[in-house]
Amino acid sequence: MKRFSKARLLTNRRIWKLVVAVLLAALSVPAQGGDDSPRRLTGSQPSATGGMTAIASGSAQPVAPNAGTPPVRSASEPSFEQVMELLQAQGRELEALRAALREQQELTARLEAKLNSGGAQADVEEAGAESLATAQTIPPSSAAQGDLAQKVAKLGADLANSQKDLEGRLKTLGPFVLSGEVRLRAEPTFGGPRDQSQDRFRERIRLRFNAEARLNDQLKGGFSFASGDLNNSISTNQTANQYATRKPLAIDRAYATYNPSWFRPLTVTGGKFAYPWFNTELVWDKDLNPEGAGETLAFNVKTPVLKKFSLVGFQMPFAENKRTAVNDKSFYNTMVYGEQLQTFWQFGGRIKLSAYTSFYDWKYADSIALSVATANSTSPDNGLLPLNNNGLQNSIAMVTVTNAVTGAKTITSAQFASKFGILDSLAQLDVRTPSERWPITFVGDFAQNTRACENVRNIPVAAVYSAPCDSRRNLSGQQCGDSSFRSYVPTFSERDAPTERPDRPAFGNGRQPAARAASVGAAAI
User: Domain segments of the chain: what residues?
Assistant: First the structure.
């Protein structure tokens, strides 16, 4: 048994030696000796088998053992320790190659990033100065990768441009640029009078569709359709009630604007348009779109403080009336003629001041009082509906006639106790704070009716006043006609979200707003 184990061990060792010899031959292990003499490994070690002899690789004769000196092993039979050292050397060489490969890959990645980001030539020279030898070993595939990355980036840019172009086309129809919105709102109202007569809850809908076209660099025009009560000109909100009936969609704006190339400071607008002048809800409701014509002259000024000034004029017909005299049955218009001087100032880098002085001259405003009191030929919807009064607070004198049979009273005339010439002075101070998200704006508005109670002498004696006219009282006393001051201190700007709340207290004032339908200036002061 021992003999068999020993023979098997010797056989395994011979197989192992043969494998190692083949490995060393493949690796070209250096050995001593001439070109035509047997080669021997440097520093031969004693044989692991003790007294066995070895055959040299270049000789056919056996070598006799020497009892005095240890036998020398041939080149084909290296020791186990030598093989391990060679393997360790190969491992170190492989590790060095891996490190060089990693360095090359990192350099390739840096060069590709710099090539894609621009300034490639300067960056390549810089990278070459850092490691010229490594840079020269960059495989040709890196250039192909850079070209591929550039192609991908170009395709991405083309796709983004195509998407923008598609979005632009979807927003346009011929020369028109289209926009619109649908809004749903749950609107609770509470905290009113003690009898809770104003407490309510409504679901409201707003639908708006806008289109604008610029025909050339001088002329543009547009229109808007909006939902809302046809009898209420200051809100596009439609209440979801009236037994699920269909809701109207009407013209909210229809205008044309001309800005001549031969005189750019001038802009002329006509139709039903947005305000061309600055105002607050002390006099004009923000959701009203006036009708008529407006002109603006704007000039930039190159001074350290004053930067710009403008002159705005407007003419707005509110109602067409018919005279009733026997010899004069002509038509005439209820009109508003207005003008505003605008100045814009800059104080340092953080403070801007805008100052405005306006005058609104109302002509034949009594037709508004009659339309609020009863439906007539000048009322909305061709005279079918009385004008929505929205909490009118003016002093109105009415004359009625009683039917002798039925006892019903019919309003035959209604007049304001005052005429209306509104002097309106406004100022807005904008402060830019260190945080761009939190600007501060101060707005002040002082309005004075310079013709309060001037119409009393034209009112018949039989007329009944809704309230006495007192030229010394202002809006805070709920007497229309004289003066009022309102200030705002908003700590944020919400420029693109005008409110439409004619049935709620005005911003900065705790009372119900004055009438702001077709009466606007006539009833707001």
Answer: 84-164, 173-254, 275-524
